[in-house]
Amino acid sequence: MSRTSSNAMASPQDSRRAGIIGAGSIGVAFAVVFARAGWRVRLFDPDAQRRAAAPAEIALRLDDLTRFALIDESAAQIAARVEIVDTLEAAAADADLVQECAPERAELKRDLFAQLDRAAPAQAILASASSFLAASKFVDESLPGHARCLVAHPGNPPYLVPVVEIVPAPFTSAAATTRAIALYGEAGLMPVRVKQEVAGFIFNRLQGAVLREAYCLVRDGVASVDDIDTVMREGLAPRWSVIGPFETVDLNTRGGIASHAQKMGPSYERMGAERGQHDPWTPELVAQVEAARRAALPLDQWDARVAWRDRQLMQLARQRKTASNKDADTPNSRDD
User: What is the pLDDT of residue 323?
Assistant: First the structure.
């Protein structure tokens, strides 16, 4: 990869352009995401050393994706779509989407969005990769383009964890939100709309709930760090890699999630009370969740879906066994 884009194989997404502000791990990962989708990418960081290091980091990630057959073109073709630029203005020029990946500091983001609003085309979406800060914390409504500003928080790394949380501010236009969802979908991600600005959004609130309890279990002498990781890795994680927590309990109990809530809800409420948390599963709340699950899976299809889940877990178990055997047969192999 050079500091200027070279000609690359034509792609259906060749007309799309992304500007990325920040060449840390998330910025580099987003460059891989957009370039892999066929977009032209301009990547900027105010630190010259970061700009210099980015091409090699992108190449390394693309080489690993090649090794695992996760890209359809050569690494060189994808890398050629990424241009390292020396100014924020150059990154934002002609962009359909500008992805800010700066540190989690409101004042810094406020200044960056003011600059981006001046530099980016009027139709460009201005998105922050913020993990906890909502857009209304760093975008002023006095900003001329405030209606196109929002948060797009990715999983890490986004080229392997495709979910991206789209979090509009109260002042973000519906059109901008819809366009952002469409653009991230075109880039191969899985956009999820967060309906309210809450700290941590969905991803980190769920992750935080698990981490808080994990820390408490260690503090209270219930289990070791390694044993807690084992329960997650070998217990919860395999199921959650196939289905989410609502579908998990829906399939765990004959009669579905309403039956699970009736049988297990009081126990979960007592566990929450031990931590000073009072969030009972009210009949109205359970009915809302049950309606969503029954719309997705009628009860007459429950047995078939349970069998599907088990086959998915079998496939996962086979893949893990194969990978384990391969690692055991390859002395001094690099860690994956």
Answer: 84
